[in-house]
Write a structure and sequence with these properties.
There is one protein chain. The chain is of the alpha/beta class and 243 residues long. The protein has two domains: 7-38 and 115-241, 3-Layer(aba) Sandwich (Rossmann fold), CATH 3.40.50.1000; 42-111. The protein contains eleven helices and six strands. Strands 3-2-1-4-5-6 form a six-stranded parallel beta sheet. Strand 2 (132-137), helix 8 and strand 3 (158-161) form a beta-alpha-beta unit. The radius of gyration is 19 Å and the shape is elongated.
Length: 243
């Protein structure tokens, strides 16, 4: 469900902060991936699940029922993908080719890891300012498997993927892993994301300063952000105005 914001919030193209006394001088900026540094292709993802359900011999609705089950979601986002694809075949009594399905998913992930406008330039400018950069992504293992083949390879100092870390946002452990790898305290970090998975709340509870990002002229899509009064940007390059 989409959240509503005032029209003035939606048309404000500049970054906003709660007050000058709350300005931060971070040692690191940590980003979310999907809908933050890159856009997830919803339509292509639906098409893939339709093709996948055909190979499994079930309806797309039946596949989605299992794939988006909360328990299954956490397990697929925090462990090896092949084991989950094999489990799906067992649960559904299917002899679908797991290697073929995994290939489809890897191809989609490769095509989708396209930086949003200004993302790579912003990461480079942060680095030149001496500010470390990191990533925390709730994602299936395919992202980690193709990351070094993507335009993001080498662009961030640290990348933490839930599927290989064994934990997911908003759990404290995943934020702690990023800070540990960056060698900084949580209080010295900004966390930038679109707010999925209560990531902004999780970052704040861990001690980071959260920054909401959403497209200009659009409300944030995730529940719980209607009254967001923290830092906010509508394009990744605007983070440079907050550091």
């Amino acid at each position: 469900m989409r959240c509503s914001l005032s029209s003035s919030s939606l048309t404000d193209r500049a970054p906003t902060r709660r007050g000058q006394d709350e300005a931060v001088t971070p040692r690191a900026v940590v980003f979310d991936l999907w809908q933050t540094l890159a856009r997830w292709p919803d339509e292509e993802s639906r098409e893939l699940r339709s093709r996948w359900s055909d190979s499994l011999g079930v309806s797309p609705e039946r596949l989605d029922e299992i794939w988006f089950d909360p328990d299954f979601y956490r397990r697929r986002e925090s462990g090896p993908i092949r084991a989950l694809l094999e489990e799906l075949c067992v649960v559904l009594g299917s002899s679908a080719d797991v290697d073929e399905v995994l290939g489809w998913r890897l191809d989609l992930t490769r095509r989708s890891l396209v930086p949003v406008p200004g993302a790579l330039e912003t990461l480079g400018r942060l680095r030149r300012r001496g500010i470390a950069t990191g990533l925390i992504s709730n994602c299936t293992e395919e992202v980690a498997l193709v990351w070094e083949q993507s335009p993001f390879a080498g662009a961030l100092d640290v990348a933490v993927f839930s599927a290989t870390a064994g934990c997911v946002k908003p759990e404290r452990r995943i934020f702690g892993l990023a800070c540990e790898k960056l060698g900084v305290a949580a209080a010295d970090c900004l966390f930038v994301g679109d707010g999925a998975n209560d990531e902004l709340g999780g970052a704040a509870r861990f001690g980071m300063t959260p920054v909401l990002v959403h497209p200009p002229d659009e409300a944030p899509v995730w529940d719980g952000l209607e009254g967001w009064d923290g830092l906010r940007i509508t394009a990744i390059p605007q983070i440079l105005e907050l550091v």
